[in-house]
Write a structure and sequence with these properties.
The chain is mainly α and 216 residues long. Helices cover 69% and strands 3% of the residues.
Amino acid sequence: MTHVTEDDLDDLEFDTLRTGDHISAARRLSELAESVSGGVSRANVLLRAGEQWQHAGDHERAAELYRKAIEDGGETYGDPRAYLADALFELGRADEARTLLDQIRADSPRDPEVYRAVAEVLYAQGDATGAHEWATSGADVVLALRDRAVGTGMGGGPDEAPASGDADSLTPGPDDVAIAEDSLEALLRLRYRARVDLGRGEDDYDALLDDLLKNA
């Protein structure tokens, strides 16, 4: 068994960014997934291996690793189904991909990064409407967390649907809110790009993005 930490995986991916050798990284991560112990879950390593195969342009192998991560059921960042959907879109299997996204939506995820990942996948596929809906829902999750933590009363613009899922039932701690806030700007940026593509005017969410950028 091999003890692997998140720092080890980050270092490997950093080196890959420098060398551009995604295939070697994917193979190394695939090997580690079969012997990993402690530190990180096997599912997490499988997910990272899939990402490297996808960066290398081998979407079939990426999909295989993502499926293994899902089947493993261990702790991962985000939702492996979103990554699998991305690979399936690239393989021309859009119906399968959208079925996965429907499953994610039905689960009402509470992690805003899941919404960001799905919104980015849809935007890359030219689905500005879908990207806008997912980015808005993700922003609503963050705003609901903020509401419950500090009572700002923000969330839900005048022309938008209510927040998805049962985010209002959350009982977040300071760390939960801080992590979620890190996702907010990315969600709002993506949402704004989708609105521009859709020819929609600025709204309260865009004003919130302006405020975030001014205070950055």
